Amino acid sequence: MTGEEMEALRARTVPDIVAEGLHVLFCGINPGLTTARLGHHFAHPGNRFWPVLHASGFTPRRLKPSEQHELLSYGLGITNISPRPTARADELTPEEYRTGGRVLAEKVARLRPGWLAVVGVTAYRAAFGDRRARTGPQEAAIGGARVWVLPNPSGLNAHWTLETMAEEYGRLRAAALDGPS
Predict the structure, then answer these.
(1) CB neighbours (10 Å) of residue 29?
(2) Residue 43 belongs to what domain range?
(3) Which residue ranges does the record assign to the Uracil-DNA glycosylase-like domain (predicted)?
(4) Mean pLDDT per segment of 10 residues, for the chain of length 181 residues?
(5) What pTM value is reported for the model?
């Protein structure tokens, strides 16, 4: 890919998959370059979001990134902390995280999902200034929604296997879909 092509990708945005009143609004960090090129969330072949979503019971089958709009029929959606595509999330500045957190809180208040699920504890900490946050449900609400921090499904996150991620996502699924609302 030429430098010009890379810069063109970095200028693209990937539209949110959202609606009012979702059970869970998943929030990624920001689009990767493959996602920007294809226009579908979590589109990199090494990203485990779609397999984990199915393995955890959120979807009855493994969706392809190109089928992302089907999430709405399950009461699920996707957004990002930052809209700016990068090769790696560590290219985002601290200000982009903070600004993204403020914009996300406004979006959540407007859309009123039952749960906001942020994929990546480091991103959550940076966006919301909570250095003590851990994976799992959080005490603080954002925009009126309960918050669950999930493991980042990126293939770069070697600390979590597909199975252990599916367990954690499954805990959220049980709380969001099986538990009291």
Answers:
(1) 25
(2) 3-178
(3) 15-178
(4) 74 93 97 92 94 97 98 98 91 96 98 97 95 95 97 81 95 87 45
(5) 0.93
Beta bridge partners of 77: 25
Query: For position 146, what pLDDT does the model report?
Result: 97
User: What is the secondary structure of 29-49 as a DSSP string?
Assistant: S--BHHHHHHTSTT-STT--H
pLDDT at 59: 97
Are the C-beta atoms of 63 and 71 separated by less than 8 Å?
Answer: yes
Q: Which helix (H) or strand (E) holds 6?
A: helix 3-10
In one-letter notation, the amino acid at residue 67 is E
**Around 171, how many Cα atoms within 13 Å sit in the side-chain half-sphere?**
14
Nearest 10 degrees: Cα torsion 119, 103, 127, 94: 120
As a dihedral over the C-alpha atoms of residue 23, residue 25, residue 26, residue 29, rounded to 10 degrees, the angle is -170
Place of tokens 């959080």: 138
User: Tokens 């869970």 correspond to what residue?
Assistant: 24
Residues labelled catalytic: 30, 41
Number of structural domains, the chain? 1
